[in-house]
Amino acid sequence: MVAGIAVETRGTIATLTIENVGKRNSLTAKMWHRLPGALPELASDPSVKVLVVRGAGADFSSGADIRDLARILHAPGMPDGGLVTVAENALAEFPKPTVAAIDGFCVGGGWQIAAACDVRIASDRATFGITPARIGIIYPLSGIQRLVSIVGPATAKYLLFSGELISSGQAVSLGMLSQVHPAPGLWAAVDSFAGMLASRSQLSIQAMKQLVHAFAAGEDAAAIGDAWQGEAAASDDAEIGAAAFLAHETPSFSWTGSGFVRRPVV
Known about the structure:
The protein is 45% helix and 15% strand. By secondary structure, it is α/β, with parallel strands linked by helices. Strand 1 and strand 2 form a beta hairpin. The chain starts with a strand and ends in a 20-residue tail after the last helix.
């Protein structure tokens, strides 16, 4: 299999797959560059409601390809963390809900990709680690910031300083994961969860995702909230949801975001 980033859409769910099986899905500079480039088309496609991110084969990703590290982390004109930071931020800013489906190794830059997703679901054989201290580099600022927001400063220091690998059981206890499933049932669990998200109001989900990000960034979310409330008032989703609830039926929400311009988190 040629190393790369593959995108497939089935119905309302798109899947982005990291493919470099022979190297535990480590990402070359070309792959880091390709990842954010795959997102705009999915963001603008009204039929896509959920993005699942996974690795090919038995692993999620072992992170950046060590042989390509200089080009990845120190690409000219890039922010701290280079191509990794650009890819991580693009995934975090993707407007639709994202689910990291994690099996096997999820280490280093692989964890940065998973951490940038909204929800992380793992198998019970998944292994996690943040390993810059093992190879003498400094983890990108964005990766440290996101790790601290997920696990807190003390646990972030432990993971960063030690570079130790931890199990999915330990990871879920630290708040790094939303769900853990026996390995044979991982993909069924991910499919079920992604399908559930796709059935919800995308107006509600996308609004609340942006508001959570604004609060986490310490920004004033009032203007963003006002814009979304205006969009909600113009949408039929609330009426559809209430009618379905009263009729004990499953709602079929209609909002796709067409024409709506999101206020940026600044």
